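Exercise: predict the structure of this protein bound to farnesyl diphosphate.
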Amino acid sequence: MDGNGRWAKKRFLPRVAGHAQGVDRVRDIVEGCIERGIEYLTLFAFSSENWRRPQDEVTRLMELFVMALEREVTRMHRNGVCLKVVGDLGRFDTRLRELIAQGEQRTLENRRLTLTICANYGGRWDILNAVNNWRRDNPDAGEMTEEALAAYLTMPYAPEPDLFIRTGGEQRISNFLLWQLAYSELYFTDTLWPDFDAAALDLAIDSYRKRERRFGRTSEQLLER
Ligand code: FPP
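Solution:
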């Protein structure tokens, strides 16, 4: 969700105003996904590297997470959203961790849309964590398999993403779901996250629909299936 800072700068506002607007877009896009029958949405809200930002911006982002959880969980629950927050949550303060646990618990049974927020997340961290936890649980096993690793990643409940969207003009994965994005279609847009509305989501979905997903096969093989 890139571009909050630039959106604010264009309006002579502090960067945090862009993040606040970004939260509003999260609500719209969650509801846009529900309307379109999308069952899984995963948002990269805060990377392991984002702690390097100015302290006041980090503090404000944490306050926004708290406010978003306090205000939005009831609405999510009413909309059938199952909330998951994944990442190295130990570094967040107690209040935030409590709200995360309560939000997850309250929405646990919902099935319409599974919304995963990646917070203090990094794709390399996820893979290393999976390897270490698997080895701890299986000290005498031989080589690890792909299935075993996938089961130990932070999102075993979700299928691998069909579509990856990055807003804000950058064309990088930036340590997002490194393992899970192996076969995903990548979509990059210059639209800044606070401007990413339902119409922008439809453009991304249209682009996805035009792609041919081969998973290593030839085009002819796909036609035969
Ligand atoms: C990147 O834009 C955005 C972030 C680091 C924060 C994303 C957070 C939100 C949208 C708000 C909270 C989200 C939830 C799910 C409650 P940037 O600051 O790097 O913008 P720039 O690329 O223009 O500098």
